[in-house]
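Appendix C: a fully annotated inverse folding record. The material below is reproduced so that readers can follow the format used throughout the book. The structure is listed first as tokens, followed by the designed sequence.
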């Protein structure tokens, strides 16, 4: 009888939005999430957000790590690594610790890289240098489009 009374914590499972599914709203999860359908809204995840090759997200994405193999229109905040795969397209502002864009992947927007705390610069100086980096990035993007 004691076995029946024990409560077990459910294990975290990944969340999957399949191809052909359209979903709108706010998602908050502790596990990983993969979007192969269409999602509009906001996703906050403690694990990894993956936008599959057929996935489309018109969203604000926040997670430890983010992988984009489909398309994202919106802002991305990765506490760790942001990977834009060769089939991935991002249109928006990105903030991450590490950015990897594979050959063929596209980023149309700004990218700021922020290292984890522990560096020597104070927050005010860091923010100023991020703004300068964004201006340089926007200028270079403008030059590429013009020429």
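Designed amino acids, in order:
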């Amino acid at each position: 009888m004691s076995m029946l009374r024990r409560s077990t914590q459910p294990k975290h499972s990944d969340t999957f939005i399949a191809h052909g599914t359209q979903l709108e709203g706010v998602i908050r999860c502790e596990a990983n999430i993969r979007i192969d359908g269409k999602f509009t809204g906001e996703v906050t995840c403690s694990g990894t957000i993956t936008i599959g090759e057929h996935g489309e997200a018109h969203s604000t994405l926040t997670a430890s790590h983010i992988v984009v193999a489909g398309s994202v229109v919106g802002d991305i905040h990765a506490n760790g690594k942001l990977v834009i795969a060769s089939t991935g397209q991002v249109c928006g502002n990105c903030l991450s610790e590490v950015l990897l864009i594979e050959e063929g992947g596209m980023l149309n927007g700004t990218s700021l890289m922020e290292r984890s705390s522990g560096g020597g610069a104070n927050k005010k100086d860091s923010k100023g240098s991020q703004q300068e980096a964004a201006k340089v990035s926007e200028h270079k993007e403008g030059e590429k489009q013009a020429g």
